[in-house]
Amino acid sequence: MSTPGRFLGGVAALIENDAGHVLLMRRAAGRDYAPGVWECVTGRLQQGEGFETALHREVHEETGLTVTATALIGTSHFHRGPPSVHTELIGVIYRCRAADPDALRLSAEHDTARWTGTEAGLALAAGSHPAEVWLRRLLLRHRHGPDGTGFELG
Length: 154
What we know:
This protein is α+β, with helices and mostly antiparallel strands. The chain has one domain: Alpha-Beta Complex (Nucleoside Triphosphate Pyrophosphohydrolase). It contains 3 helices and 7 strands. The strands form 2 sheets. The protein has a 4-stranded mixed beta sheet with strand order 4-1-6-5, with helices on both faces. A hairpin with an 8-residue loop joins strand 5 (67-79) and strand 6. The mean pLDDT is 91.
């Protein structure tokens, strides 16, 4: 008999504008995890909350935007910090379309944002931090589709 898992649920949103550019934001310097690192919208589910409800809540909290989820990009399994039952996260990654990209307003979690193409996004995420490695994989998946290894981005 296996032991039931204990983990957090999470969502990520790769938000596109009408030009096909995606929204990337830089984590503010004072953040506890990955300060100064570029990312898309990410967040954890609240107890009893569904993935799509969490998606819309997190997008609105971090950006002020209203989005439509247009596709599932993949899933994710990682630890947000040193591996433990308190940092293990299972996530669902969505492609979204912003209803009004000009309505963007950042929360205190991020200090700047850019609507960018894939190549420019890859350049922003050129570091070795695990969050940057993950973002590069996500941007490549967005550009090319699944790579034949499944839908999990790590």
